[in-house]
């Protein structure tokens, strides 16, 4: 067991020194002050157990070296104890290696010393001479101390000398009998108190009772009381009569406070801020409501409700127990009561000494039992006891009857009784149970009476709900009872074998158990039982489950339920959400609504935002609830109308976004009709807005801080140049001042106060847009370490009970320390141990612990890798790249606090094993460290880090190229048929009859195509090697309901061509003519009708003679060009989509069969050998019938066989929510559908006839587009959008196409 040395830090006081509490308390005591469980012989008496003394045999040793021995010291009066030291017996092989410390005021009802949430085991000695001293982390007060040896020398036996360090302690004590109340009367009748300090100590065996109470006639009150052995503080600084301000505030702390041990309470209040401290654990909170003063009348009462007060409701009891050192705002209440300065008339007998309890608790662990005698051969069993535990199951009592067994167990939080009686081969069994949730740590009373044909079980004295049975039963007692465990063999063994918890008030066959006699060994027997002590611990108080996680516990441990909190881990410490939209983009996510948690494990909860991933930026949008164009009337400078703007996140959450963002903006608009805004240029302002920090701002959208102008005043284009806002001209017509607020430290807008709408005809309409922020500086905050001796230093890391560290790193070095922070013996370190191993090591006082994760691939690959480490009181976890994970549970007993004092070093450990590379987004307990700022002033470290594409380039899909940026990357989709931040959005177009896209590969083709002056050409000149192809890659998707059609046609200067067509029956055909064959090589890809209005996709590859074609999601099919065919596609000239207009050698049959009227429908993501002709055409500002649309995208999987022949076919509705349930509705839908189809057909026919009538008669149909030469010379990146008759299309017609 490693032991930590605790250094007490005394506050610095001027002009005086505080006396140190470090006197030797045991050495001056007489021999008689020392007692023990036993003595080896006279020379080994406990009186010789003084540190560094050699009297007698040189120390104390017991008769037997076992776990039932103890050494006790009576300090003569209550003392404050701050440290303890031990030694072995002088010049011997006897010493104690591990021990527990118990303390008490009376020599009874012992309390074990607690530390770090456990009954503490101190490390002792390793020889007989060296003294080992331990400072107590929490000083204790008591008269009696008892050391219980746990382990001792292997060569000898238990041997002990000790010293206790501390100082004298004195306090006024008052005993409260449950009747008396101390009244502290105020000097004036009504007190208006802005600041309170209340301090006291109490001890009690009761779980309920009012400790203090004060109230006022205005409804203010303060009450401190025990409820179910927890401390409840209720305070109300005032509510109003309308109920809009509710001041009641209730806070609970502590538990198991009915243990009859001293507990310290301090309440500090200043206005609405309260510190509520119990036994050094402080809760900070603000009272509800809006009032600051506590208005009390007459008095404050201690120990119960005042008799002058209102009737005590809800059966609230007065306090029964002891209090000491009661202080209220500097007045010593206990001293005033002793001097009879206060009203104590309600006490029957006021006592200034603490009356002790007569209970004798017994403490059981999983291997304990207590055997006690009862009455034998009696026809009635009558037993009773009280117990407390956290475990839902356990054996409370077991007895072998004369002819059967009796068992009382705890089963799933209920008390269950099982009686088995066997008479003359006949077995009678009775099972009864009562209660629920009895494993809540509270004392519960059990009473069982069983006799002939009758049994009754009562829980907590509630006779009304007692469980009775009158089953046939004959009982003869066996005379012996086992409590808390039974490990012997028996014919009917108990369902449970052991119990972890405490018992007291044990009654067996109507006789109280004499546990003092048991302790002396006169009566009964026991094993591993602690007598006169209940060492129960509430492991959920203080609650280590963070962020609202629910704590559940057993006797030995606790667990946290994190469901619905947004956090995960053993203590609900780590957020399950990313910190920003930027982080989601770098996980490859597209635009959507996401939960974000900007401070990770910090106090801010997660919240929803809209993330818009654009090509080069990531926008975070937070909506508000102010309706667009909110009308405002009736406001003036004296009585402004204040419009509250509430957001979908709290102000702290929104501030977290704006703080880390690169840029924020918010649109604000003021529409006015005779309503002045800023009253420019010199007047007193009418309307202002309130931003972050409740600060008023007197500028408007489009302007900036300190400039009392609107956007038009900045741009000098206001409707009336005398004013700096349009609205300030005060015109009798609607005007508007609007623009973007971009100073992010002022955003978001939380209120707008409007002040000029109270004149006749005066009106205004206000719009406040959503807050939009772009970028995340925290996510990209990086530093590059260029020399092994360079490091950054920051303030000491504060992570005592829970710590989390996360960052990204990239390096080409094989090892290096990421960060380190040291304490006295404690430390924490994260390190790249080798090219494949990251380690997380720390020491909280129990010895060094190291976790390591091993990567399957090298980590020094100059790519970003993510490290997350967490350490809490339950476990330590290390995670790498969301893939590799290592964890280690914390020891059940041991230190839990990480105490560091050195600076935090990032990039090295004391100048050793320095890290070479980049560290980014270093976040510790939710706070991002500003590496860039520190790097600017540190030699060997540079701010920022280049090279993000090696890690994030994989998110650029479909051939998109990753482009490096200082903060991150973007995807260049220029050479792809896609768009969007990740090149995943299909680019497609809607083709009407006659619409075509022409893409020229040869420069002379572009120059020669010069017949149509209204069209433009897209050209992409090829090198000589690219003109003669031996391989093609073709991909596109389409949807149409018309056949036949040419989808794609690639022509050449020779007779070679490639065509993808839909035949008359809607089937898909690919035609290759590369020369050498009499007829073009045709491939019928699919015999089904693909002109069915559904999207379909085709991917085709040719390499020499091998052709592979994949339709939709079906497996690719291979084809082979005949041996006679050429493999070169010579002099590729032009690519057509939708229709062919070409001079020269073309397939006349193809044109005749499929080229008229042209493709009608959608083409999407068209790609040919790295060229995206359709996207290029759409990105060029062309006029025509090509409307951008992705209606050809999202190919559907077509069943490989018809529904009629498919044995697995079943009818499914397209949308479950729209299933028509009954025949009448279905028939109606069918009739409606037929009518719609008929109307649509008539309309289409009319449109076709009108168009036919207005065609230019005598137009010569060539296969060449007119006037293409002009546009060809105009730009290399333009496309022809042609028609049969190249007429311009008016705006309404274009809208019709869309």
UniProtKB/TrEMBL annotation:
It is a single-pass type I membrane protein. The keyword Secreted does not apply. Residues 536-573, 946-984 form the EGF-like domain. One of its GO terms (cellular component) is membrane. PANTHER family: CONTACTIN-ASSOCIATED PROTEIN-LIKE 2, PIKACHURIN-LIKE PROTEIN. It comes from the Eukaryota. The chain crosses the membrane at residues 1229-1250. Keywords: Cell adhesion, Cell junction, Disulfide bond, EGF-like domain, Glycoprotein, Membrane, Phosphoprotein, Repeat, Signal, Transmembrane, Transmembrane helix. Belongs to the neurexin family. Residues 16-167 form the F5/8 type C domain. One of its GO terms (biological process) is cell adhesion. Disulfide bonds join 918-945. It comes from Myripristis murdjan. The gene is CNTNAP2. Residues 173-354, 359-534, 781-945, 1006-1191 form the Laminin G domain. This is Contactin associated protein 2. Residues 1263-1298 are annotated as: Disordered. The lineage of its organism: Eukaryota, Metazoa, Chordata, Craniata, Vertebrata. Residues 572-624 form the Fibrinogen C-terminal domain. The keyword Disulfide bond applies. It holds the Pfam family F5_F8_type_C. It is found in: Cell junction, Paranodal septate junction; Membrane.
